[in-house]
User: Which sequence fits this backbone?
């Protein structure tokens, strides 16, 4: 089963939890150059390490970024997202003051919303079928 080659273990559980995250800039302003995206990846890898989360893949364009993360069950995705967006916004505004002109009014780099989708494993229809076919105790 190649999709389960990256199973992680914790003290009391075994898990393979992946999420696809997408963050969009405020007002979809075209803010990022390749240099900004490279720095964003470094910042987000550091935040992920603090949460014991693996940043499997990162990429983006001038107004949004995509992340594929492998996270332990103890991590609330909402807290991870808030930290990723907050720390990256703060650090980029400190390191690249010229970016502030793109979001001066709201004092935020990122839109207030984000996308988070679970990925990996069997499709829901297969899981549902598997559960339905389990023998019930008599």
Assistant:
């Amino acid at each position: 089963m190649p999709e389960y080659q990256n199973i992680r273990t914790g003290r009391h559980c075994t898990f393979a939890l992946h999420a696809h995250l997408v963050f969009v800039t405020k007002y979809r302003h075209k803010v990022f150059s390749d240099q900004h995206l490279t720095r964003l990846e470094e910042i987000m890898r550091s935040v992920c390490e603090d949460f014991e989360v693996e940043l499997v893949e990162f990429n983006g364009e001038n107004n949004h970024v995509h992340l594929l993360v492998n996270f332990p069950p103890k991590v609330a995705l909402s807290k991870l997202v808030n930290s990723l967006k907050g720390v990256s916004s703060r650090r980029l505004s400190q390191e690249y003051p010229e970016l502030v002109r793109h979001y001066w009014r709201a004092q935020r780099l990122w839109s207030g919303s984000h996308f988070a989708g679970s990925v990996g494993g069997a499709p829901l229809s297969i899981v549902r079928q598997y559960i339905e076919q389990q023998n019930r105790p008599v």
Observations:
- Strands lie at 8-9, 14-15, 18-25, 54-61, 64-70, 110-119.
- Residues 39 and 95 are 10 Å apart (CA to CA).
- The chain has one domain: 2-132.
- The chain has a mean pLDDT of 88.
